[in-house]
Amino acid sequence: KxxxxxxxxxxxxxxxxLASPASYSDYQSALQAxxxxxxxxxxxxxxxxxxxxxxxxGISPGILFVDxxxxxxxxxxxxxxxxxxxxxxxxxxxxDCSCGLDSSCYGCLRSYANxxxxxxxxxxxxxxxxxxxxxx
Length: 136
Description:
- The protein is α+β, with helices and mostly antiparallel strands.
- Helix content is 31%, strand content 12%.
- The protein has helices at 24-36, 75-81, 83-96, 123-130, and strands spanning 13-17, 48-53, 62-67.
- Strands 1-3-2 form a three-stranded antiparallel sheet, with helices on one face.
- A hairpin with an 8-residue loop joins β2 (48-53) and β3.
- α1 (24-36) crosses α3 (83-96) and α1 crosses α4.
- It is globular, with a radius of gyration of 15 Å.
- The mean pLDDT is 89.
């Protein structure tokens, strides 16, 4: 006998598509930089989850922000409203870190939540993606 359990989880989601000639790992680094910078726009890091959505070969992945508060707390809307400020903060945090460009640390990209991808996170990758969207 097969038993399946499920739960419907309704919340807000925001997808951002940044057309940048970068690798999937570079996008993963940029995503982690954005998530780490959420407190700079007034959102607790634990209140939003992030992931990449592959859109096909040769197409930059979509960056998804999922409001982790059941029913949504409006964080997706706030990120959309303050996206320019968030990208600038993420770029600044990554560029100001003192760890190597080809690595990352808990001061810039690493967190307990992203342990499974930490070996692919680099400051250089995040900067490659984010620099195109930071006002000069």
